Every structure is written in C-alpha cells, then in structure tokens.
Amino acid sequence: MYFLDAATAQQIVDRTMRIIDHNINVMNSQGVILGSGDSSRINTVHEGALLAISQNRTVVIDDGGVHSLHGVKPGINLPLHYHGQIIGVVGITGAPAQLMQFGELLKMTAEMMVEQANSLEVEQWRKRQREEFILQLIRHEGSYPEEMQTWAKQLQIDLTVPRVAAVIELQAHELQHTSLRDIQLLLEYPQRNNLVALTALDQLVILKPAFLDGCSWDPSLEDIRIEKLLARLPADTKGRLKIALGHYFPGAGGIVRSYRTACETLALGKRRAPEQTKYLYQDHALPVLLSGLGDDWRGQELAAPFRLLQKRDRRGVLTKTLQVYLQHFGDQQRCADALYIHRNTLRYRLEKITQITGIDLNSLDGLLQLYLGEVLERLQS
C-alpha cells in the first residue's frame, strides 16, 4: 500500500495554489493534515477528511457544517485514490458553490502528482537495489547462490554475460561541477549493458561486457572505448579523472579478480605515472602481480639480493650496470655497447655483482630473482 508523505502533500499544495486562489489542504488516510497553505493547520486532524475517507465520497462543508465538525472550515474535500485504494484527501477552503468547478480537476492533478512521486520513488529504489547488487558482485567469490541469481533476475541483470571491471576516480573540485553521477550517466546511456555503481565518494566501478567483438576478450578494443569516453568529457574533468581497466577472468569469481586487478592497476599507475589519465592492466601486469608481495616475506626474500647490491654500491655504478644487463637479456656485447665500456670492464662489474649478491648471473633463476627484486624495489620507492 502507498502512504502519502508530507513532502508530496506539500508539493501538491504549493503547485495547485499557484493556479487556484484558495487555501489547499492535503490529508493522509488518518485525516491528519500533512500539507497546507496555512502552516498552522499542519499536523491537526480534519474531521471532514475522516468523513470523506470513511464514506469514500466528496464531502461538502458549508457554514453550518463548521459547527458540527472539528478542525474544519467551509470548503470541499475529495478522497484521493491510488491503485484503487484511498490514500488521503485533498480539500479546498472557501464557499462550496464557488469551488465545485475546481474539485475534480484538483483531485485528478493531485492523484497524478502522487503517481509521479511514487514512480520516481520506485525508480530510485530500483537504482539503489541495482547498485547494491553490483557491490555484491565485486565482493562475492565463487559461484552465485540461488538468492543472488533470483535477485539478478528481478533486476534484469544477466549473470552469464562475461564482464571485465574498470575503476574511475574523480578528484572533487568546488569550482568544477562534473560529478561521478554525471559520468555514471555517460556510461549507462546510451544503453551498453554496463553495470555501474559508486564504491566511494570519489570512485565508481564499471562492469563492462568483456567480448566487444562477440567472441573474445580484446584489451585493445576496450582501450578504444575508454578513449571515446574521455573524448565525451569536459576538458576540466579529464584533469581530475583517473581510469584503470582490469584483466578479464572467466568463470566463477572472475568479476572479483577483475575488480581487484583494476584497483591495483589504478593504485600503481597513480604512483608510477601520476600525469597519465588512463591505466591498463596489460601495460602494468608484472608490477601489479608483484605489488601484493611488497610486505610479504616472499617479496622480502626476492628483493634481498638486489637491495644488498644497492646498499654496497654507493656510487650506483653496479646497480646501473645490472639494470642495463637485464634490459639486454644478458647479452654482454650489447650491454657493454650501451654503457660505452669495454667488455673486460663489464665482466669485472658482473663479477662484483655476483660477489655481493651471491647470485650466479649465468643462471636464469638468478637473473629472474634480480630482475624481480629490482621491480619490487621500484614499487616500494
């Protein structure tokens, strides 16, 4: 059942009194005045309204009726209906003979405003439910239980559609009015089957259909879509916005993992390239995968040899040599050429690196550990 609220009641009063030069009262189903042009009458009981409700008819109150009913003035009172139920009464104060011409028109107007208010309320409720469901999607690991599947059907969300997560962050600025809600509208309309929800005051998540070509996951197509979105934004907004695209993971729990990669990519991208607007997981995959090891004992062990080299190499010559050596995949001639040194000088430096780190540079495992250690150290700095 719909319950008439004070805000809607007063809205009916305010709008209709602009047209009709008489005081208007709107009462709820208990006869209590919720809205009125006379504020002193709000929250008082109108016995004429109670009569209109109990008998489901228009009640006319003349000068004689004023003395027999409590809380009334001359006028007419018409019951308001919504989906066949009485939800309240609208009353016009004045001489009844002069008001009959307005009665049905006022009643129809009030009922239309109730219908509109309820439609907006239902739409807002559905929107809140949809956002809450999306937040559940980015937290839920594994297959979806029956209650989530039922919820999805009610919201007309197809859980079988493969999706990839993207995260948008927008810095607030008091002089610039584009908000995350504005961006949300751009992402939802025209209809692209995106699932969009605010995750924080400055951040939203987009769960996008992953197979833009209808067949497979192609990050380059998503990159193009992101560029098109950025092109639709005001210039001042682009400077405040960061967007990160995660990786696509098939199967149960894929959305959660995709969302996590998007968040990690955003955090890493902001640290490593704060001047950029767009960050793609595919461009930062290794650092993103390693970022969770920073404080873990495994990460500490991986980075230990490289950090020891940095500590002993006060001038940074050996560290620079190792970085160039790794960039050239252990090719000594190309490394020596890049450093503008003789190969014998390079061999001497590589031997020093081995002595300090205890890592065999002729071993693939050794080279890999030093490379990963260097990446982890960059992530920490």
Automatic annotation (TrEMBL):
<feature type="domain" description="CdaR GGDEF-like">
    <location>
        <begin position="142"/>
        <end position="267"/>
    </location>
</feature>
<protein>
    <submittedName>
        <fullName>CdaR family transcriptional regulator</fullName>
    </submittedName>
</protein>
<feature type="domain" description="PucR C-terminal helix-turn-helix">
    <location>
        <begin position="318"/>
        <end position="372"/>
    </location>
</feature>
<dbReference type="Pfam" id="PF05651">
    <property type="entry name" value="Diacid_rec"/>
</dbReference>
<dbReference type="InterPro" id="IPR042070">
    <property type="entry name" value="PucR_C-HTH_sf"/>
</dbReference>
<dbReference type="InterPro" id="IPR008599">
    <property type="entry name" value="Diacid_rec"/>
</dbReference>
<dbReference type="InterPro" id="IPR051448">
    <property type="entry name" value="CdaR-like_regulators"/>
</dbReference>
<feature type="domain" description="Putative sugar diacid recognition">
    <location>
        <begin position="4"/>
        <end position="137"/>
    </location>
</feature>
<dbReference type="InterPro" id="IPR025736">
    <property type="entry name" value="PucR_C-HTH_dom"/>
</dbReference>
<dbReference type="Pfam" id="PF13556">
    <property type="entry name" value="HTH_30"/>
</dbReference>
<comment type="similarity">
    <text>Belongs to the CdaR family.</text>
</comment>
<dbReference type="InterPro" id="IPR041522">
    <property type="entry name" value="CdaR_GGDEF"/>
</dbReference>
<dbReference type="Pfam" id="PF17853">
    <property type="entry name" value="GGDEF_2"/>
</dbReference>
